[in-house]
Amino acid sequence: MxxxxxxxxxxxxxxxxxxxxxxxxxxxxxxTRSLRRNLTxxxxxxxxxxxxxxFSWYPMVREFGLAFQKTESGHTRWVGLDNLTTVxxxxxxxxxxxxxxxxxxxxxxxxxxAPFVAALxxxxxxxxxxxxxxxVYLPVMLPPVASVLLFKYLYDPGYGLLNEVLxxxxxxxxxxxxxxxxxxxxxxxxxxxxxxxxxxxxxLAALQNIPGELYEAAELDGAGLLRKIWYVTIPQTRLILSLxxxxxxxxxxxxxxxxFLLTGGAGPEGSTTTVVYLIYxxxxxxxxxxxxxxxxLLLLVLLAGFSGAYARLSRADDE
Length: 319
Description:
- This protein has 14 helices and two strands.
- Strand 1 and strand 2 form a beta hairpin.
- With 319 residues, the protein is mainly alpha-helical.
- The chain is globular and about 75 Å long.
- Helix 5 packs antiparallel against helix 8, helix 8 runs antiparallel to helix 12 and helix 13 packs antiparallel against helix 14.
- Strands 1-2 form a two-stranded antiparallel ribbon.
- The longest helix is centred in the middle third of the chain and has 33 residues.
- This is Sugar ABC transporter permease.
- InterPro entries: ABC_transporter_permease, MetI-like, MetI-like_sf.
- One of its GO terms (biological process) is transmembrane transport.
């Protein structure tokens, strides 16, 4: 047997491996593939960001500038706090804030409790819940103008349905929208009916996530309906209730549509003049955009401060 050769064999030139070209870094390649794969999602996201920037963020930034500017004869100049002084010295300023606070309080009494009670009632039904959910949400689907026309018919002092009921019961008729003492309450009732559907469905979803064992344990302890609501339902839905309370306050402080359509905005003796309606007057009736922006900035600071304090108290309560 011959010994193996110790001389190195020549490599076939055709089989030689050529050096690899330097490619993009792996991280960059992964990013490119991910971007290409999610191109549609990024396109929708960019569109949403652009819409928010143009229709939400830019107006807010522009408002900060207008609040300290004044335009006269086509020339804009910085006036410092003059717009704020003009707004505060307006006799309608404090009345608008009082009316807004009154609307907020009444809306919390009626508009915060009514959806929760409606959700409790619907949750007790074992059949027909879908129909009841549609029924309670139907006012939200109606155009606000249609709902306002409906309540204008109900509140009409001559042939309105409410006064017809009062006449049938031999009770004195009321000037619902023409009486300064009743106009705000009438607006609150209409606003509650128009907007309670969404909150009622949110409460209903929260109620249906409560374990039934908790109610069974409460019944074994002899708890009645009210005690079950107080000790089981409210603690289990506390997070949703607190969030909806915050949203309700922020929304009612910006009320405009209902008093504007029902009472023309100001109402009898200015009883339904709200802060947002006063902003509308400054901007579109008086052409004083600086004063309108200054009042809007005050409302923004107030709501932002309230939201921040509420979030801080909620975090401290959770800890």
